[in-house]
Amino acid sequence: xxxxxxYFDYSSTNSYFAAFLLPDICRKHDAIVNWLPxxxxxxxxxxxxxxxxxxxxxxRYLWRDHQRYAEFTxxxxxxxxxxxxxxxxxxxxxxxxxxxxxxxxxxxxxxKMSDFAQAVMRAYWERDVDISDLAMLGALARSLGLNADTxxxxxxxxxxxxxxxxxxxxxxxxxxxxxxMFVVDGEMFWGKDRLxxxxxxxxxx
Amino acid sequence: xxxxxxYFDYSSTNSYFAAFLLPDICRKHDAIVNWLPxxxxxxxxxxxxxxxxxxxxxxRYLWRDHQRYAEFTxxxxxxxxxxxxxxxxxxxxxxxxxxxxxxxxxxxxxxKMSDFAQAVMRAYWERDVDISDLAMLGALARSLGLNADTxxxxxxxxxxxxxxxxxxxxxxxxxxxxxxMFVVDGEMFWGKDRLxxxxxxxxxx
Lengths: 205, 205
Description:
Oligomer: homodimer
CATH superfamily of chain A: Glutaredoxin
Strand order of the largest sheet of chain A: 2-1-3-4
């Protein structure tokens, strides 16, 4: 079975779309998604790159483009009122899930992990939930049958911080510079617009 | 017959791909391409945006991605040795072609204009020709049956400068912020990755 490494951050609109489109593609081709939450804000720090720096006409276009993409895919995307948003707590919580449910803590392909990641994406990009709020993250965890208090405590732990730093640093070392990014068969792809190329890798190689 | 406004600059790799893919799509759906050369360097001036500012890992990725896209489309793209390159003379020459061949000078859908635009794209992005060199532009014009000296003189005229400034300023006023961009049925699309959306506009509306 092939694995697709999926680098994402909850703050990335295109990662939201990919979080639903990629698992569908992988399911079709018997492949597995390896969920790799990265902290874009710390990745961009010191590079001089500012994801929010753009002309008003470009910003206007991008929201319109996301709306069209939502219509195209059928995903009920809605522009959130808080944007950008702090995502580090949600990313750390995500990374702690495998260990909390008694699985290998270093295995990021667990289904509960993908369930939680998709739940956070839906909360922020469909229902305008404040995902920087620990209580909100707890409620999402509870809705998936996880212990909210345990998850919130784990998200604040040193281990969670170390995991997020480690995944982000490993991504940078590998060449990742944004999100969503996908690695399959040693090939790296950037953006939801390259999912077709990811799919071709799963079919042909 | 529908018209697709195609904003491009010769310095844009993605415009190169679009310059061949868009006419194919339009032909299939009985639509016309309106070739609108814009000067990206002057469009970006004063916005604080620097198209070349990026981490080495992002730059490396982008060339690899272009190479893959070339394989995907069959277009013989080759990374040019001069990059970026000054394109204003080539853009001005392009805009003067309709008038020089005795057609309406304000009609940018003339076939000689698209022939010349595609010839310049191929020269730069396939054969590493220095398209900032007037002699090279003259040779390309000659190969299309145009008078090279007349075209070079026209490219340097005040009229050519005014045309390039006018198309670029009109584009900005309309919301264009990069290239390639397409406008069809009042909808604006950015990037070769939205050609599928352009095609859907030609089919459904």
